[in-house]
Amino acid sequence: MTPTPIRIGSRGSQLALWQANHISYALRDAGYQTEIEIIRTTGDRMQQPGFVPPPGLDGKGIFIKEIEEALEDGRIDLAVHSLKDLPTRLSPQFEIAAIPKRADPRDVFVCEQFWALHALPSGARVGTTSPRRQAQILALRPDVTFVDIRGNIDTRLKKLESGKCEALVLAAAGLDRLKRAEWVHQRFDPTEMCPAPGQGALALETRSGSTDRDLYIRQTIAFFNHPPTRFSVEAERTVLDRLGGGCQLPIGALCIPTSEGFTMHAQVVAPDGETMIQLETQASSSADPIEFGERVAAHLQERGALDLLTNVANETESS
């Protein structure tokens, strides 16, 4: 009897489909049959002109809600996500079954004319909607302005080319994967711009059940898991979780494997860029990632991170 194909759920963007196909090809090379189902999410609809967000939408999980519904209903067996899109706490019926080796986690400066952020003229327009990136950029260049640039990578690059802004700041991994890094003129050091937790990593989400199908899927995809990446992103996401943050708060965390263990860079930045709490912390190769992330979060709290984040949240609610 021919095995039932492994059904992979994905958003329909160019990058999301690259990621889903990347996993699909690897599974096929390993001898498995696969199918990809494209699922339109709330986050995708939000990027369309005229979209009216539903009441109570808080921005968490907007790129995964419909995908998880398909997973729960059994329409798909496996979801491929950009890990930074996932909330730090999943519903108990789901789990991250594997995390492949991470691509470049850094943020990059994308511009045709100028070769680095410091070379931009005063008042230059930078295209980004990320509160974290805006705050970190202002800490480096308080004289630039921001333009609301949304959409997939090609859409953003076209807006840059048409003169809607002088530069973009994007994730390196997406541009590298789509081979669109021709205008990447600067890859930011994490001490300058610390990436979002999980940036550059993929998450393979499955059901957490004990049915034969669930166990089969988790066993099948186990070979994707890359332990150093898994440690790193679990530690980063723990920092984010313990600080109560999400994609709307300016928190950066990047854990890097070293010859002796791991090094965590973490940043919490005020929206105007004038106040920054920043630290670098080490962990041994035998450390627990959750405990490491909790230790980093505690150090940030000792330096006033919670007060800073509370002020950011209050400003957001009042605006």
> How are the strands ordered across the major sheet?
2-1-3-10-4
Q: How many independent structural domains?
A: 3
Strand portion: 15-25%
The count of strands amounts to: 13
Average predicted confidence as pLDDT:
91
Largest sheet: 5 strands, mixed
**Regarding CATH, which class of the largest domain?**
Alpha Beta
The end-to-end distance, rounded to whole angstroms, is 60 Å
Low-confidence stretches: none
Report the CATH topology name of the largest domain: D-Maltodextrin-Binding Protein, domain 2
Could you give the topology of this structure?
Blueprint: E1 6-10, H1 14-29, E2 34-38, H2 42-46, H3 65-73, E3 78-82, E4 94-98, E5 107-110, E6 125-127, H4 131-140, E7 145-147, H5 153-161, E8 167-171, H6 172-177, E9 184-187, E10 202-207, H7 212-221, H8 227-242, E11 251-257, E12 261-269, E13 276-284, H9 289-302, H10 305-318
Parallel strand pairs: 1-2, 1-3, 6-7, 6-8
Antiparallel strand pairs: 3-10, 4-10, 5-8, 5-9, 11-12, 12-13
Helix pairs in contact: 8-9
Key words describing this protein structure:
319 residues, alpha/beta, D-Maltodextrin-Binding Protein, domain 2, Double Stranded RNA Binding Domain, 3 domains, five-stranded mixed sheet, 10 helices, 13 strands
Tell me what you see in this structure.
- Helices cover 34% and strands 22% of the residues.
- With 319 residues, the protein is α/β, with parallel strands linked by helices.
- It has 3 domains: 6-101 and 201-226, D-Maltodextrin-Binding Protein, domain 2; 107-187, Periplasmic binding protein-like II (D-Maltodextrin-Binding Protein, domain 2, 3-Layer(aba) Sandwich), CATH 3.40.190; 237-318, Double Stranded RNA Binding Domain (2-Layer Sandwich), CATH 3.30.160.40.
- The strands form 3 sheets. The protein has a 5-stranded mixed sheet, sandwiched between helices. It has a 5-stranded mixed sheet with strand order 7-6-8-5-9. Strands 11-12-13 form a 3-stranded antiparallel sheet.
- A hairpin with a 3-residue loop joins strand 11 (251-257) and strand 12.
- The longest helix is centred in the N-terminal third of the chain and has 16 residues, at 14-29.
- The mean pLDDT is 91.
